[in-house]
Specification:
seven-stranded mixed beta sheet; globular; 9 helices; Rossmann fold; Quinone Oxidoreductase, Chain A, domain 1; alpha/beta; 20 strands; single chain; 2 domains; 23% helix; six-stranded parallel beta sheet; 341 residues
Length: 341
């Protein structure tokens, strides 16, 4: 079968891989759609994502959906042909958490994640025609949610987890800094959670148009040094760029909340952070998600339309072109999707 495999920096190939077998407690999926994420781009461009560096070829992809092709022994409550998506995290070990972190499995110290080089051997992802998956990681798609949108459940779950970190959004005014795929999904999640108004800020008009389609009430182009609004009680920072943090903190009201959903670099980087102290801002990190992927599927079934974030579609044999388009700010891309089988 075909798989999208990164062998090193700027070395992406369509390799032939052995057909997967459904072991006990597993299913084999015919993977239909996959969404390209920033970590996929990082492995392709740099041979690493954060501190996880390639030591061997890696099948990319953790945002996937498809249909069950085969059931392994002992699998119950799932059917061949059923459309599903996948929770890409698998805890390594007994899953025991300290009492203060009870239920926050996204913070478990040892997690295998689809398409990740954090472990050696690496954890292959789902950008392949077929994939063996633990049945416990499978999430059936609700009526009315197709596999194209089902592949967006994972990034929507990231956005919904970030929104949940802020507490109730009912009736609140929100700023989302950065209208890339995650930022635009945060816009949608915030509106779904009851935010009164959502302002989306970015330097790209194309990204802002997508944020508008995802529910933003106001758009702000900050290219050329444009300022963010002042005194925002609740801010989501979705760029992960240290250089913007000074302005984002200044935009946050005194005593306000800043949720950091954009991944910040793991290496030292300059940032102006003085307002964090003098304005007594609560700065909250947001990492992946727990089981908000199930919440994301319910939200889509409830009518939350995330399809505006999809800007491009490519076949599996065009994966290299898909990566180039996804990485190119001039392409106007947001979420780039691969048709895998």
């Amino acid at each position: 079968m075909k798989a999208v495999v990164v062998h090193g920096p700027n070395d992406l190939r369509i390799d032939e891989r052995p057909e997967p077998v459904a072991g006990p407690g597993e299913v084999v999926l015919d993977v239909e759609w996959g969404g390209i994420c920033g970590s996929d781009l990082s492995y392709w461009r740099h041979g690493a994502s954060g501190t996880a560096a390639l030591k061997s070829p890696l099948v990319l992809g953790h945002e996937v959906a498809g249909r069950i092709a085969r059931l392994g022994a002992g699998v119950q409550n799932l059917d061949v042909g059923q459309p599903v998506t996948v929770h890409p995290a698998e805890l390594v070990g007994d899953g025991t958490m300290p009492e203060r972190l009870k239920g926050r499995t996204n913070l478990y110290p040892s997690v295998r994640y689809f398409g990740s080089a954090a472990f050696d051997p690496h954890t292959d992802g789902g950008f392949s025609e077929r994939k063996a998956v633990r049945a416990s990681q499978v999430r059936p798609l609700p009526e009315g949610v197709d596999t194209l949108r089902g592949a967006l459940a994972e990034p929507l779950a990231v956005a919904m987890h970030a929104v949940g970190r802020a507490g109730s959004l009912a009736g609140r005014d929100v700023l989302v800094n950065g209208a890339g795929p995650i930022g635009s999904l945060v816009v949608a999640a915030a509106k779904y959670a009851g935010a009164r108004t959502v302002i989306a800020a970015d330097i790209s008009e194309a990204s802002l148009r997508i944020a508008k389609a995802m529910g933003a009430d106001e758009l702000l182009n900050v290219s050329g040094g444009g300022a963010l609004p002042e005194d925002m009680e609740l801010v989501f920072e979705a760029t992960g760029i240290p250089g913007v943090l000074g302005g984002v903190l200044r935009a946050t009201a005194r005593g306000g909340i800043l949720v950091q959903v954009g991944n910040l670099p793991g290496a030292p980087a300059p940032a102006a952070l003085g307002d964090l102290v003098t304005r007594e801002i609560t700065w909250i990190g947001s990492y992946r998600f727990v089981d908000e992927i199930s919440d994301a599927l319910r939200a889509m079934a409830d009518g939350l339309d995330v399809s505006p974030v999809i800007t491009h579609k490519f076949g599996i044999d065009q994966a290299a072109e898909a990566m180039r388009v996804s990485a190119d700010p001039a392409s106007g891309s947001s979420k780039v999707m691969l048709k895998l089988s």
